[in-house]
Amino acid sequence: MKKLLLLTLPLAFIGYSPLYAQITPKRIEARRTNKPVVIDGRLNEAAWQDASLLDDYTEFRPVVGRKEELENRTETFLMYTDAGIYFGGTCYEKDIKNISKELVGRDGFGANDYIGIIFDTYNDKLNGFEYFVTPLGEQWDAKMTPNTNDDNGGEDFSWNAVWESAVIIHDKGWSFEIFLPYAAIRFSKDKLQDWGLNITRRRRKTEQQNTWSAIDPNVNGFLTQEGLWTGIADIKPPIRLQLSPYFSVYANHFPTNQADQKNWTNQVSGGLDLKLGLSQAFTLDATLIPDFGQVQSDNRVLNLTPFEVKFNENRSFFTEGTELFNKGNLFYSRRIGGAPINFGEAYSGLKPYEQVLTNPTESKLINASKVSGRMKGGLGIGILNAVTRPQYAIIENTETGETRKVETDPTTNYNILVLDQTLKHNSSVSFINTSVLRGNNNYNANVSSGMFSFFDKKNTYNWTGSVAISNLTYKVPDKKHSTGYSHSFGFAKTSGRFNFSLSQQLTDTKFTSNDLGYFTNNNFINHALYLGYRYTEPKKWYNRLFYNFNATLSSLFSPIGNIESKYQQSNFALNINAQNKKLHWFGVFAQFTPKQNDFYEPRISGKVFKRGNSVMAGAWIESNYAKKYSVNAEVAERVFLNFYDLSGTDLFFAQTYRFNSKFSIRHSVNYQLRPTGLGFATILTDGTPLFALRNVNSVDHILFLKYNFTNKMGLTFRARHYASVVKPKSFFTLTDNGTLMPKSGITENLNRNVNFFNIDMVYTWQFAPGSFLNVVWKEASVMDSDIANNNYLDNLQNTLQTEQNNNFSLKVIYFLDYLQIKKLKKRA
């Protein structure tokens, strides 16, 4: 490790790059046409003679700065009309067998070659719109925002626009045509405009990626190196009114052993999603009576940690175009429509002879809306509002049969306001406010944060920081309002071969953003150091090589109870990653974690659990995904030093096989083996935390099958089985000084055997632009027992034999655009 670090230090302030300070961004003059174009992939209309030619592409990986080969060159054309932008061209291939193609569905990468155009319509080098096509005519689109230390920036592929494209494959390669209506992009209403522009093409079998305006991967950011499309004149942002009404039918089968309860319930519903252009820059997105019943099932796990599991967001309204709302890490969209805040009160307030009949596990969303966009001067504004209806648990008296309701969640209003001002040199300042307003006597929550990110003129050094204040206000007199504080500051070098960052984050004992964000704990001062070096020029055995060193230190902001030490934990890690000549990625990593003071594992405030030193090492590999068969594997082993002989192994293996361009299958398995693990088990009757030395084995299997009939129609099948078995070997009580004392006489069965099984089968057909027919089958079953069975096949069989929930649904979404309707009326 020391030898490796010494190699980086002499170059710390050189930041050498072979193209650094040599690249001059390209410029191209905009050309207009009034001639018609039929989008069929053939550039045979006279209008293309009016277009600008963009060729002479430059490679930025694997060989930086190399010009395209003549036989595999790229020729593209760009022009505009009163209605939108036309982009077309030919991706030449010396041998068309080298075209990598796969049907994977919209916004899917797969093993596809692709070409795409990126517009920075406000030319601020911070906000881009991307549009891609593949050789089989599938579309991608995304919003691009800056992301430090990422060659491609931050891309939000959940953002979708409606546009036209067509592709044909021929004996010289493949040709494409794209039409982008102005409703599919955001821009100012200036009479004369210059836009940032770049075009990129990727050939997956060689992993060559070329751009029209050259890119240096050692310079921070993709948009910061874009070219320029100049002289765009007299274009007007159109009226943007798009409606997506939906109609859905659900049939739900709920298993029950009670004869008077129905196994089947049916539901018919409808609603509406709306996009309205409030101005040339701002868009209102609203959903009325939303329906999220077809989203993918959560990957549920047995959680043995003291912190909440964070799930992915699969609801499109909360993933599409939310880059502004995600600033500051204060927004966790699963809070909206999540678990009721007073879910447990249905059980804690039970009277004699009462039982809980029903207790909803999530709140129901009434409606949600968001306004977002960016003004000409660079001010981005985002406003999000959502309302959930109250939820009630039904309590039954088993003697009289009478029922009563207990409110577990009041009517709740969620709000987010974001102001983000872009500045010169890829810099910005931001303000974020989140608030949660609840009915009845429940508390309200508010968090405000100011942020900044400043770069120098050469886009080499970056200063970041944030300050946040949280407020909890209570409506009952016996609780006092609570105000908390948090800040973070950092300094980094982001361009050149050598990069580093140094940061500090502080949170006091009262700060919390958990009501609308994901927040685990407060009361800490964290410091982090990152040192990284990258080789982007191919050498004898590698195309790219990266290595980095990370160090962290965490302490309490304020002492806890009578514990004098503020130290929590520290960590030192080394990573080395590379891509070889056969386009396989691989890496090795190592980590040392000194002794820790864990203030959260005891589950009781004022207690500490002292962990021992540990070391961890591992390796990973990703084979060339362009091959028919590819694998992705990782192994890591952690061993504790002179601390109860604890050890743990993590194994991950995934394999994908593509039978042809339509059909592929992927299987992944993730093992977490803890033959000797140690952690919190329960709280004894005297209030003492009980710990267990235990065997914990978890396995997560996912099988995914995909068959795409066309580039507009496909079928997917996803089955997941998760099993986690916990078997204690011996028990300990936690002493006041943080050590463990053996405890005998524990008769309570603390074994756990938890299994989750899910199936998500989805047929989707895009029968018109922006319009979809979806048919979904979902199955879920859960087995939770105190019999610790480590036989995986037995667990799977027993889980499949348990009663299962089945859900069948059909949903039709029809896209209506005001401009299209207006054209049809004129023709009529």
From TrEMBL:
Residue ranges annotated for the DUF5916 domain, each copy included: 237-824
Superkingdom of the organism of origin: Bacteria
CDD domains: CBM9_like_2 (cd09618)
Family annotation (InterPro entries): DUF5916
Protein name as it appears in the record: DUF5916 domain-containing protein
Lineage: Bacteria, Pseudomonadati, Bacteroidota, Cytophagia, Cytophagales
